[in-house]
From TrEMBL:
This is Terminase small subunit. Pfam families: Sf6_terminase. InterPro entries: Sf6_terminase. Gene3D superfamilies: Homeodomain-like.
Length: 133
């Protein structure tokens, strides 16, 4: 029987495992856990639960980042280690593009971070008769 009755203890347990780097799929497939849809319904029905889930997801990013460093330092098989690191890096970049994505953003701003000021300047120049060679 799949647990589908909400308890704060169960919700906390799920969030703790998320914060430790586990996926929601992996957690919800365990005996005694609700299915993912039930978990998401709980989050949608309560701002407090949604905030707790969001915080656990942010903590999961840190756990995944830590896993990448650990794999890089301890992998016995370099090919398998690189594969695991690349998969985690790809996932992390999609979870938080701004923090972990491989992109460059350029912004143009005016003085003191304000809007760019555009000025039109008309130059009055005397005509050049002939340019030296």
């Amino acid at each position: 029987m799949v647990a589908s009755i909400f308890t704060q203890v169960l919700f906390d347990k799920i969030c703790d495992q998320l914060a430790d780097g586990k996926s929601l799929r992996e957690i919800c497939e365990k005996k005694g856990m609700p299915n993912r849809k039930t978990f998401h319904v709980w989050c949608k029905n309560s701002q407090e639960l949604k905030a707790q889930y969001d915080e656990a997801c942010l903590d999961r990013e840190d756990a995944i980042f830590d896993d990448i460093l650990y794999i890089g330092d301890t992998a016995k098989d370099s090919k398998l280690g690189k594969l695991a690191m690349d998969a985690k890096q790809w996932t992390l970049a999609r979870m938080n593009r701004k923090k972990y994505g491989n992109h460059i953003t350029e912004e143009m701003v005016g003085a003191n971070g304000g809007p760019i000021q555009i000025e039109r300047v008309r130059l009055n120049m005397a005509p050049v008769e002939e340019l030296p060679e």
